[in-house]
Amino acid sequence: MSDPVQKVRDEFGTWMKENLAGEFACLKWRGTFGDDEAYPELRQKWEQKLGADGWVGVGWPKKYGGRGYSLPEMVAYNEEYARYGGPGRSGHIGETLFGPTVIAFGTEEQKKQFLPGIRAGTEYWCQGYSEPNAGSDLSNIKTKARLVGDEWVVDGQKIWTSLAVDADWVFVIARAEEGSKGRNGLVFLLVPLDQPGVEIRPITQITGGSEFNELFFTEAKTAKGNILGGVGDGWKIAMALLGFERGASTLGQQMIFANEVNEIIKLAKINGAYHDPHIRQRIAKAYAGLKIMRFSALRMLSGAEKGEWGPETYTSKIYWATWHRDLGELAMDVVGSEAEIMKDGEFGALQKMFLFSRADTIYAGTNQIQRNMIAERALGMPKEPRGDPNA
Amino acid sequence: MSDPVQKVRDEFGTWMKENLAGEFACLKWRGTFGDDEAYPELRQKWEQKLGADGWVGVGWPKKYGGRGYSLPEMVAYNEEYARYGGPGRSGHIGETLFGPTVIAFGTEEQKKQFLPGIRAGTEYWCQGYSEPNAGSDLSNIKTKARLVGDEWVVDGQKIWTSLAVDADWVFVIARAEEGSKGRNGLVFLLVPLDQPGVEIRPITQITGGSEFNELFFTEAKTAKGNILGGVGDGWKIAMALLGFERGASTLGQQMIFANEVNEIIKLAKINGAYHDPHIRQRIAKAYAGLKIMRFSALRMLSGAEKGEWGPETYTSKIYWATWHRDLGELAMDVVGSEAEIMKDGEFGALQKMFLFSRADTIYAGTNQIQRNMIAERALGMPKEPRGDPNA
Amino acid sequence: MAYPFSEDHDMIREAVRGWAQDWFDGGQGPEGVHKAGTGFDAKAWESLTKELGMAGVAIDEAYGGAGLGDLGRVVIMEELGASLASVPFLSTCGISVDLITACGSDAAKADLLPKIASGELIVSYCDGHNALKLEDGKISGGVSHVVSAANADLILLSLRDADKIEIIAIPNKTNGLQIKAHQTMDPTRAVADIRLDAVNKSDVTIIGTISEADLNELVIQSFIALAAECIGGAQKCLDMTLEYTGQRVQFDRTIASFQAIKHKCADMYVAIEEARSAVYYAATAEPAEKTEAALIAKATATEMFFKVAGDAIQLHGGIGFTWEYPLHFFFKRARANRTMFGTPTRDYERLAVGLLGDAA
Amino acid sequence: MAYPFSEDHDMIREAVRGWAQDWFDGGQGPEGVHKAGTGFDAKAWESLTKELGMAGVAIDEAYGGAGLGDLGRVVIMEELGASLASVPFLSTCGISVDLITACGSDAAKADLLPKIASGELIVSYCDGHNALKLEDGKISGGVSHVVSAANADLILLSLRDADKIEIIAIPNKTNGLQIKAHQTMDPTRAVADIRLDAVNKSDVTIIGTISEADLNELVIQSFIALAAECIGGAQKCLDMTLEYTGQRVQFDRTIASFQAIKHKCADMYVAIEEARSAVYYAATAEPAEKTEAALIAKATATEMFFKVAGDAIQLHGGIGFTWEYPLHFFFKRARANRTMFGTPTRDYERLAVGLLGDAA
Fold this sequence. Notes:
The complex is a heterotetramer, with 2 copies of chain A and 2 copies of chain C. Chain A folds into 3 domains: about 5-90, Butyryl-Coa Dehydrogenase, subunit A, domain 1 (Orthogonal Bundle); about 125-235, Butyryl-CoA Dehydrogenase, subunit A, domain 2; about 245-380, Butyryl-CoA Dehydrogenase, subunit A, domain 3, CATH 1.20.140. By secondary structure, chain A is α+β, with helices and mostly antiparallel strands. Chain A is built from 11 helices and 9 strands. Helix content of chain A is about 45%, strand content about 15%. In chain A, helix 1 (about 5-20) runs parallel beside helix 3 (about 70-85), helix 3 (about 70-85) packs parallel to helix 7 (about 250-270) and helix 8 (about 275-305) runs antiparallel to helix 9 (about 310-335). Chain A has helices at about 5-20, 40-50, 70-85, 90-105, 110-120, 235-245, 250-270, 275-305, 310-335, 350-360, 365-380; strands spanning about 125-130, 145-150, 150-160, 170-175, 185-190, 200-205, 210-225, 225-230, 340. In chain A, the strands form 2 sheets. In chain A, strands 1-4-5-8 form a 4-stranded mixed beta sheet. A 4-stranded antiparallel beta sheet of chain A has the order 2-3-7-6, with no helix packed on it. The longest helix of chain A has 29 residues, at about 275-305. Chain C contains 12 helices and 11 strands. Chain C has 3 domains: about 5-115, Acyl-CoA dehydrogenase/oxidase, N-terminal domain (Butyryl-Coa Dehydrogenase, subunit A, domain 1), CATH 1.10.540.10; about 125-210, Butyryl-CoA Dehydrogenase, subunit A, domain 2 (Beta Barrel); about 220-360, Butyryl-CoA Dehydrogenase, subunit A, domain 3 (Up-down Bundle), CATH 1.20.140. By secondary structure, chain C is of the alpha+beta class. The mean pLDDT of chain C is about 95. In chain C, the strands form 3 sheets. Chain C has a 4-stranded mixed beta sheet with strand order 1-4-5-9. Classes of the chains: A alpha+beta, C alpha+beta. Chains in contact: A-B, A-C, A-D, B-C, B-D, C-D.
């Protein structure tokens, strides 16, 4: 490791240790995916604390309030955050998805308008991509946008939107050209959520919690200027944004996974499950998977820094999702006969992880869609024909 | 069990015990699939011995030299055969595939011509279905047949033909109508192998042996009358014949499998592999699979007797093939560090089983084709479109 | 009427199928039942037993039952599994009936079996002979995670008394008996912990005595009913998946037309049918084979159901893990069944002992 | 040049790739080599070492090597694996070089390493410290299934002498040394049994001494090369599958256009890439992490190769299990690699000991 990286580790590690304490201590390891509803207000306060000390948007260029961190520095930042059990970030979507997108595609004016609120932890974003009939087939967008005077008017429905309840803005892919199909005629609009034309309905899921929401747009309005790029650029920008998803935060996610593996190991030692040779094999494999994910991420990120997305890019989602789903099953088997029992009517952390991990292989591209992508993009195999032969 | 069934068990069991002895003793458990080349001449002699005592074609009607056995009697017959380690049957294809087909579709004259040789163990048959470009897509037949005077003239190539080297006849699906496609215009011809127009080339396979052959037809000839049904009936007859494959012999196959499982258990006890908890699980699962296959077969056969092919019909091939492939891997792991070593340059029985079992999930319909069939026929899911979208 | 069933079995299936699907709304459960997590619907139980008369399916005709044995019970459990019915059929009409039948005194049989058959009595059994102590005529000790105990009128327990094992029956209001219901991940069938605190042996009824070996075999054989429930649940998961994927359109095709979906459904189907064979085999096996067959059926079917329910969620995509769609209840039931009476790993190890001897 | 490789590594890869594919005909082997089952092609070895100069890849530059360490060896083993090259690189240039480097005397290093680098010396190592007895200055005992021993000029063995472990070198013609070659299922790399029958200790060279713990770590770390071979072999299996399924037409489509084929290829690819990460990680790991990383790499890569080679046969259909098509050689090599230095189960148990302590 080179010096600047160690500097990040020291500086941010110390900050985390000192600040994730006191009133924030209860946030440790909380609010991660599957546990989004934990302490929403306190986590916003935490986001603002991070922002105030300059720890939001560290990968952004300095001129936009970031620290201009290199990739190894980003890795260190994310790992330190997770090492100390940093909670799920309320500002996650603004910081890692929308921020980089507006930096890449926005006008200077838009950057000035939107980046500071994200940077300060005061403005929150969510993502309006999926629709009831455009899940795996993302280009099948039905939400419509039309320009009426100085405003865009949006009608339609989005689904599987996480972090919507506490968000101020949503970025929406919508169809702006009547009769356009697939990837053509789409716009990437920025729409304020606090208006009569937007209704948010939480979706209750397998855990009883509501990670995801439905968004209904009924003549929802946004200013004419709240568009990234022009009409027809929506698809390109949306795909670029998905690229940012495969970023350095993956290493932070892995630290959370590592913490889960450690919890399982600890439990197996206490409750005697470590005697079971089958459990031993599975724990060892889970641990091996962790190490493999880490090195795969380093391979991926190292390529990304050179502007090359290597093969690891394609494999990471299906690998971690499947690994994590298996970990959920392992966790329950290590817990043993107590696994079924809820304490005080609430799911425990491992139970929640087990149940929610069934969603891991579905959201952000099902395992089936991942395999399609890998076969077609990484291996150059032929595409499936569209159109139902029996329709 | 009803009386006639017990009678079969007693009578045939006694016969097997008394006759699979002396010069035939070396045939025990030999010549099964994957071991076809063991003692070819002695096995023909054995076939003739069976025939002489009335033990070939026991399921055929009495008027064609059979015993007219019911299904439970067939089950008993097959199980007794396998219980005593009866060797792979040289006359297998004639007895269980071609015989029933000629009984169902042949003229009386054809029955008189072809059944006695099979029944006596003196005439052997093989099957000309697959072609290099018609494997999974069986209807894509390119072999041509044209009627010239009193003879059919056949040109083309067949592949994956087992038991061809010692066979006298082959039944061939060929295209008799120029320009016909798919399932139309096909004929089901009976062609003698001992002629200049037929060349047989064994295919050396993973074990070094040659279970399968290629057949080349170059103006091969057969009499005008050597056709089952008429022009255009080829597909229907071929499919009916495949139906006979799912017959009572499956229970005999299971006895062979049971013998393999017993060998593995015996070995595990001797060499200490039984201490290993992972091996124990796998042996127990293999054993459970055996029991499950047996009951599935009883469900299937019981339906077949009433003329109903139940769901078990669709599941049995993929289940036993996959089970057997897993058993091969288990066998090698039980053998342990010696598994790699060949004695006197020859594969041992378990090594051969391990290697050849890789073919089980491929021949007679790959696992992929089985899944297609199950999805479309048993579950009524839509068919795949034909035609390459990128062609 | 498919092998190995008779017309009687078909009639029962027909009756229970419609009833269960309607009553439990295809697994979603009557308003509030699953949400409350009590795992018990008293009205449904009353309807199943008193209107349909199903509680006596495996009870001898002499005691007011239908005398349809394991196979009759298999039919009902399949259908109850397909709707995740929150009724105490498994505990009441399974092991409890078998125990009373196997070792009960004439008086016990004449008293209890007709009451079970008529739906007057809910019974729950658990092994107690290694957990309970008998001292000075008083019984103390605890057993965890007992199926349907919280709803039972009568708790059956095995009790070691010197060199014999007694099956005892304790009414739920007995002095010194505490029953603590749990909320569980699977809200469709709750379990409870039982504690006996110096219960007077004179307050309990002795049903009969049984050898430990016979008891163990009987308990294992009772797993057949649980395995049948798994078949029913898994079949329902596949049916839902076929229906959903046949309607859901992506890339201008129903997703059922994609091989990835078709092949996974085919694998689910193969797994269900083979487990079905194992269950039907166990239910019809000769006595000498029945214990082994029951172990195979339970291990295969519980493992299969968990896999199939998980795959069904996967093939449904997003809707599969929403609360409003009932699939997650099947997944949770499957997870519970997979460990309720010991894991498949333990079952296979038991088989291995028979095949290979002890490991050490 | 992709992380973590340097330009030097890329050059080596380029040189060995074409050479190996040509020489071994893409895995089919030169006429007769695989059929004979000797698992050794002397001319190929001469060409690889003397013309391409690859034997010294991991040997210090001071001793005539390239000094490219584990990562250099990984590159070569990947390419040798992709063609199933029947050369004793693994035994000669892997553990043997590492042992001599780690514990050899200056004299031993100066004598042996340059000879290995130049291709003059084929070396085979196996653990002997639990199998061999030293009595009255004579060594006796046997070790089974030693890789490349039949072709080695020099056999290295570990020998327990009182409380230390010596690494000794025995020339293949030494009195009392018997080497018996086996024919194996995998005909591309034969193994041999070694017997020492009262070999005079004065007839052997003592390379140096090493602690048992250090020796064990060194042996485990040498697995990285075997794991790399698996990556190369598996990648070749996938490449062959992509090529074949892209040409084979059924139902008027290339079979590569069917999701069943595409998704299995995708799974193969994921498995290969993740195992590749494990191998590259192990080859570049810090000393403190290297043993654990090597275990992970070996377990992952050997298991993956066996699975991928089996799947490749499946996706080829009939041609996949014919002798003329080389896939079955890859399958056989994969099977051999999966157990050659202990099974993945044993590797994971070793990891488990580190994570959970001993099982008992």
